[in-house]
Every structure is written in C-alpha cells, then in structure tokens.
Amino acid sequence: MDVRTILVEPKNEENIGAVARVVKNFGFSELCLVNPPVMGTKAYSVASHAQEVLTAAKVLGSVDEAVAKSAIVACTTSKHGISVNEHLRMPYLSPHDLKNKVEGKSGVLSLLFGREDTGLLNEELMRCDLVVCITTSPIYPVMNLSHAVSVLLYELSEVASTSAGLQLASVENKERLFWHQELFLDEIGYKEHKKEKTLLMLRRILGRAELTAREVQTLRGILRKAEWKIRHHR
Question: Is 65 in the same domain as 162?
C-alpha cells in the first residue's frame, strides 16, 4: 500500500521537521499537515536531508481533506481502551498487527497522528477504520511524535506499494455506507441513546473487514431492500 503520514494540528515545527526526516528514512514521501504552525528555519534544519519531503508536504484545513481517497484510515493513540465496551479505542492493533493487516492490499493507508499535548479528539478517533497503539511503559506511555511515527513507518517499510493487490473501497465510498446505516437505524426506530455507540461499533467492525467497493455496494443494496420492505409493509 501507499502510506500517507498525517499530522493533525502539530504544535512544534521541530517535530514536523523530525517527522519529515523519518518519512524519508523509511522510504516514504507523502506527508500531510492539518492546520500546522508556521514553519521556519527550525523545521528545515531538523529535516536535514529530507527537506524535499517538508517542501512537498500538503497543508490542509481538515482531517476529511487529509484522508480523502484513502482505502484505510488508521488512528494512533497512546491511551488504548481497557474495556470491550469502549469502542472508541478498542479493539486496537499493534504496529506489527497493522503491517499484517495491510500487506498485499492496494490503495492508500492514511496514518493519523494527533497533537503533542492532547492527541486526537474523540470525533477524529470516530472517523477512523482502525486504532493503533504502541505498547510502552505505563510509567511514561506517551512517546515523542517523531518517535511514534518512526515505530509505525519502520513496521510498514516492508509493505511495498502494489497495484496488483486487493483493491479496497475508498474512504468516500465507505462514508456513504456509514451514512446509509445511520438512516436505516432511524428508519427502524433504533433507540437514540444507543445509536452513537452502535454506529461506532459498526464502523470498527467494517473497518477491520477490509471492504472492497463491490462489498460496500452489496451491503447498501441489502439496506435499500430492507428499507423498501419496511415502507411497504407498514
């Protein structure tokens, strides 16, 4: 797969430069920055011989723009869930699990890394197909941003981009399915207080399922048929 590294609202320009260097270290090139600070000489100095990665980085205004045309969106978190009922951060994958998950697939894998101080917001975690957590010491579990990027890109560096692998559905295609699921829950009178957690659970299940475009189309076809039946048998 092609790997896209996305930094969401990074605070420190030196960290951006260090990440650009890591991206090149492991043979990748695509870096996206969502609402970054103004970058000056410090970022380019830290980037060292990866300045071209920094220069080519896309500066975007939202996570939605950054993950456009992705096949898989993976969020990173230093704080994983501890309960099977906590679907926001559970189940989570290790970086090695993620490598095994995407190996032999075709498309873009977007890796979301959060702010240095607060990480990713809940609404950003809800946007992802998969959650990845690097196991660290409980004494000090939060890694430096560039170090966390290094661990993931090291694992993924052996996953070569290929056009011959299984072509997964685009993020836009899957978002239409998730939107359709929400409409369907409204159609059947699903309890409002359960809806958000159920939709998140479905997103996690389908995110791990590695859906193709044809499979997404089939699932939406089933929903449309069920909706037709409901409307004509009231």
Answer: yes
**Do residues 41 and 111 both lie within one domain?**
yes
Q: Out of 24-38, 54-68, 212-226, which region has the weakest mean confidence (pLDDT)? A: 212-226
pLDDT at position 155 is 93
User: Alpha-carbon distance 67 to 234, whole Å?
Assistant: 41
pTM confidence score: 0.78
For residue 146, the enclosing domain spans: 2-167
Kindly give the interhelix angle for 171-187 and 213-232, rounded to the nearest 10 degrees: 20
Same domain, 138 and 192: no
Q: Are 145 and 176 within one domain? A: no
Looking at residue 201, what is its pLDDT? 84
Alpha-carbon radius of gyration of the chain: 19
Block residue for tokens 């941003």:
145
- Give me the number of domains the chain comprises: 2
Residue 19's CATH number: 3.40.1280.10
- Residue 51, number of CB atoms within 10 A of its CB: 17
Element (H, E) at 47: helix 41-47
Contacts with 60 (C-beta within 8 Å, 6 or more apart), sequence order: 32, 33, 34, 35, 66
What residues have CB less than 8 Å from 176, skipping those under 6 apart?
216, 220
Q: How many CB atoms lie within 10 A of CB 115?
A: 18
Q: What are the E-state strand segments in 107-221? A: 108-113, 130-132, 166-167
- Tens digit of pLDDT for each residue in 180-217? 998 888 888 888 888 888 888 888 888 788 888 888 88
